[in-house]
Amino acid sequence: MAPQQRKPHVCRNPDLIRGVGKYSRSKMYHKRGLWAIKAKNGGAFPKHEKKAAAAAPAEKPPKFYPADDVKKPLVNKRKARPTKLRASITPGTVLIILAGRFKGKRVVFLKQLTSGLLLVTGPFKINGVPLRRVNQSYVIATSTKVDISGVNVEKFDDKYFGKKVEKKKKKGEGEFFEAEKEEKNVLPQDKKDDQKSVDAALIKSIEAVPDLKSYLGARFSLKAGMKPHELVF
Amino acid sequence: MPFKRYVEIGRVALVNYGKDYGKLVVIVDVIDQNRALVDAPDMVRGQMNFKRLTLTDIKIDIKRVPNKKTLVAALEAADVKNKWESSSWGRKLIVQKKRASLKDFDRFKIMLAKIKKAGVVRQELSKLKKETTC
C-alpha cells in the first residue's frame, strides 16, 4: 500500500461556530491518543535529539558597505499562468468576436494557447476568418457547439503566430529611397495548408448540422428591441 | 360592469411579484382584507398579499385549507394545467418564456424561417394579384 492511497482524514474536532471547537483541550488530548503515545514511551512524550547544526562555512566580513541603505524588493512567488478560461468556452464552441477586423463574426473555438489567448478559426472558407488568436475578453460564447474531434491543433502555439524576425540589412545610402522590399507580406504556403487541413474536418462536421454553415457565415448584430443583458447566447 | 373573477376558496391565481413570480397558485383561505393563504403543489403553503396575485378564470372545487394531497388531487381532477396551457393567456406566457430562452443559433434559424415564410406569402399574393388584374 503506497502511502498516497490513504483516505483524507475526517476532522477530529468539528467547529460549533468559527473559532469554537466541539471538544475541549482535555478531550482532544484524549482523542488524539497522546496518553497512549506517552504510555508507550514510558511517561514522557518521545523526543528526537536535535541534529547538530551543519557547520556553516566561516563568512568573511564584507569588503564594501554601501553608503545608503537600499531597500530589497519583496519576494514575488507568483507564477504566470494562462488566463482562466470561462466555463462556457469549450473546444468547439461557437464564439462571437466583438472587436477588431472581424467584429460580429461567428467563429469556432479550437483551444487556449499558453499565453491565454484563444485559438480560433472561421473556418476560412465559410466566413473569411483564418486561424487566429483572439482575447477572451473580446468574445461572447454562445451555447452552440461544433464537433471538433477530427481536428488536430497540437502544432499551433504562440510562436506560430509571432511576427517573423528578419535579418537586419546594413542600410546603404542609395537604398534609402528605393522601395527596397517589394514583398507584400505574402502568406507562406505552409500556413495556407495548415488552414486547409484544420478546416477540412471542421467543415464536414459543420455541414452535418442544418443551417450551421449559413449561421457561421452571417455576422451578429444587435437589432431593434434586443436587450443584450436579457439575451441568452 | 360586474366583476367576473372573484377571490374565493379554490380560485387559481398567477403570482405576479416576488420569489414565486409566474407560478400558478390556489387560494386556499382568506386571512384578512389584504392577504390570502395560498398553496401550490411545488411550494410550501403560505400567505400572500392580493396585490401579488392576478386572478384567473380557473376555479377548483376544494374545501377551506385542504391537505396537500387533497389539493393535488383536486388540481388533477379539474385538469388545471391543461386548461391553463390551452387558454390564450397561458399560451402567451409560454411563448414569452420560449422567446426569452432562445439561443443565438435559434434566433438565426427563426430569422431564416421568417424570411422563407414571407417569401412564400409574397409569391401567393403576387399570383393572386396577377389573376385579378388580368
TrEMBL record, chain A:
The keyword Ribosomal protein applies. GO terms for cellular component: cytosolic large ribosomal subunit. CDD domains: KOW_RPL6. GO terms for molecular function: RNA binding; structural constituent of ribosome. It holds the Pfam family Ribosomal_L6e. Keywords: Ribonucleoprotein, Ribosomal protein. GO terms for biological process: cytoplasmic translation. Residues 3-61 form the Large ribosomal subunit protein uL6 N-terminal domain. Belongs to the eukaryotic ribosomal protein eL6 family. This is 60S ribosomal protein L6. It comes from Helianthus annuus (Common sunflower).
TrEMBL record, chain B:
Pfam families: Ribosomal_L14e. One of its GO terms (biological process) is translation. It comes from the Eukaryota. Residues 45-117 form the Large ribosomal subunit protein eL14 domain. InterPro entries: Rib_uL2_dom2, Ribosomal_eL14, Ribosomal_eL14_dom, Translation_prot_SH3-like_sf. Keywords: Ribonucleoprotein, Ribosomal protein. GO terms for molecular function: mRNA binding; RNA binding; structural constituent of ribosome. One of its GO terms (cellular component) is cytosolic large ribosomal subunit. The keyword Ribosomal protein applies. PANTHER family: 60S RIBOSOMAL PROTEIN L14, LARGE RIBOSOMAL SUBUNIT PROTEIN EL14. Belongs to the eukaryotic ribosomal protein eL14 family. This is Ribosomal protein L14. It comes from Helianthus annuus (Common sunflower). The gene is RL14.
